[in-house]
Amino acid sequence: MARRPTPLSHEEFAAICRRLDEGEPTRADLKAATMHLVALLVARAPGASVEVRIPPFAAVQCIAGARHTRGTPPAVVEMDAPTWIALGRGRLQWADATVRASGERSDLSPLLPLDEA
């Protein structure tokens, strides 16, 4: 069973956001910001009816509803890390993002932004 992601402290996330805003994030920054925002998503919308994938850093299940255990889930949302981070921070709107989403409950816009840092 996968471990539940843990959010960063406010100070840690703020430091990463400064590097993101300066255009100098490292791969470690992208991973940490992705995992932080995924942790906030899972806390805000617990469940297992939607799988959110941000390759290569994260894949989590969230949102209440029917749980899946094998194969492709009935609802999948996938995007790259910069898009996920921009959505999670409120720097990009869902309607303007390049996201692959299919299935019921795959519109995450009511849950965003997650952290406006």
Task: Describe the 3D structure.
- With 117 residues, the protein is an alpha+beta fold.
- It is 33% helix and 14% strand.
- The longest helix is centred in the first third of the chain and has 18 residues.
- It has a four-stranded mixed sheet with strand order 2-1-3-4, covered by helices on one side.
- It contains three helices and four strands; from the N terminus they run H-H-E-E-E-H-E.
Structural class: alpha+beta
The coarse silhouette is globular
Share of residues in strands: 5-15%
Helical percentage? 25-40%
Average predicted confidence as pLDDT: 91
Strand order of the largest sheet: 2-1-3-4
From the structure above, extract its key features.
14% strand; 117 residues; alpha+beta
